Amino acid sequence: MINVGMVGYGYWGNNLLRNFMNTPGCTLKTVCDLRLERLKIAQKQFPSIEITDKIEDLINDAKIDAVIVATPVFLHFKFAKMALLAGKHVLVEKPLTASVDEATELVNLAKDKNLILAVDHTFLFTGSVQKIKSMVDEGSFGKLQYFDSTRINLGLFQPDINVIWDLAPHDISILNYLIDEKPVSVSCTGQSHTSNKLENIAYLTLQYQSDFIAHFSCSWVSPVKIRRILIGGDQKMCLYDDVEPTEKVKIYDTGFDVKNEEEKHKMLIDYRAGDIYIPKIAQKEALSEMAKDFINAIDKNQRPLVDGESGLEVVKILDAAQKSINNKGQEIKL
Ligand SMILES: NC(=O)c1ccc[n+]([C@@H]2O[C@H](COP(=O)([O-])OP(=O)(O)OC[C@H]3O[C@@H](n4cnc5c(N)ncnc54)[C@H](O)[C@@H]3O)[C@@H](O)[C@H]2O)c1
User: Fold this and answer.
1) Among positive and negative, which fits the CA dihedral 153, 154, 158, 161?
2) Is 272 in the pocket of ligand 1 (CB under 6 A)?
3) For residue 74, is pLDDT > 70?
4) Cβ distance 149 to 229 under 8 Å?
């Protein structure tokens, strides 16, 4: 039985607690939060758990094998490092850390101590992303040309990070999971409409060595909730609409062929708009799959689906996006 401790029992911590309590082979032994009212809620739900407002109680508990960090992002590094130094496996909420240096240090520390470092990029565990991944790997879309995501809603404004650090990790992690090629440059613009100057709307573009391109729209100030990703290949295209209750993934037999390319002024395009296919998607709770994967990785000493290196790759893009925003959209080489 793997004993887990969790620091941060806010909105997401509540989902993590429920799923880890239902994961075979582990138990969530102790929850730590600064807010006593939250700890009481946790204990009411699961009377067996211990509660504390001191992180040291988790870190110094020899019976705890693994620590989940579900605090605000600026505390991820501090708590993950403390746990790794104490010889505990660590699962960190997304994004792994607030800087590349911090993420690199955690990755190296976990490696040195032969401990599991995993990141909760939850969307990779959804049936939809798993299905799209298997279709990409089978070559169903042909050569991939673009990834275009829109993740917008009204709120939730975060007090410590801007909209790119809050929402883009979901889509960047999906993109990195689907394609092996790494971006060569990042450009990003954004705007804040509040006094704390954290951008609440932003547009991020990734350029690649090949002709692949990726674009992300992120907003906390949209009147409607949209969570859509379009993926284009030269054979087929895909719409992943996470707000759809059932038919989340649609595959379009859509494409174009360019004729007379050598004579640009005479270029002809043949458009193809064929059938639309809706694949069957496994209806599993993504967080439950993530929890199982983390516990299994500890148990078998194997790589989790999203390890520290994958988390670091996401942070590298976020960090470059931040530099670009600070320089009015300047292209930042990776
Ligand atoms: N994977 C996902 O889909 C997903 C979704 C939402 C949030 N998150 C991530 O989860 C993390 C938490 O987000 P949230 O929305 O639950 O925030 P939240 O503010 O609701 O919860 C954070 C909790 O951490 C506690 N906390 C703060 N400082 C602490 C300290 N020093 N010691 C102990 N506890 C402390 C707070 O009291 C609060 O209860 C963030 O990293 C966020 O990015 C991930």
Assistant:
1) positive
2) no
3) yes
4) yes
CB-count burial class (<10 Å; 0-12, 13-18, 19+) for 4: buried
User: Which CA distances in Å does 260 have to 142, 170, 211, 255, 257?
Assistant: 22, 40, 20, 17, 10
Place of tokens 């004993």: 3
Q: Let me know: does 117 contact 107? Beta carbons within 8 Å.
A: yes
Is any ligand 1 atom within 6 A of the Cβ of residue 34?
A: yes
pLDDT tens digits for 223-255? 999 999 999 999 999 999 999 999 999 999 999
Burial (0-12, 13-18, 19+ Cβ within 10 Å), 224: exposed
User: Ligand 1 centre from 97 Cα, in Å?
Assistant: 13
Helix (H, G, I), strand (E, B) or coil at 225: strand
Domains of the chain: 2-115 (3.40.50.720), 124-284+317-333 (3.30.360.10)
Count the neighbouring beta carbons within 10 Å of the beta carbon of residue 132. 25
Segment 215-222 mean pLDDT: 98
Range name among 41-45, 53-57, 169-173, 280-284 with the lowest pLDDT average: 280-284
Q: Of ligand 1's atoms, which has the minimum distance to the CA of residue 35?
A: 37
- Interacting residues of 164 by C-beta distance below 8 A, sequence separation 6+: 188, 190, 199, 202, 204, 218, 318, 321, 322, 325
C-alpha of residue 7 to centroid of ligand 1, in Å:
9
Nearest residue to 199 (alpha-carbon basis) of 207, 210, 191: 191
Cβ pair 66, 298 in contact under 8 A: yes
Do residues 59 and 30 touch, judged by C-beta distance below 8 A?
Answer: no
Distance 10 CA to ligand 1 centre (A): 5
Rounded CA-CA distance 316/101 in Å is 9
133: its two tokens: 């991944």
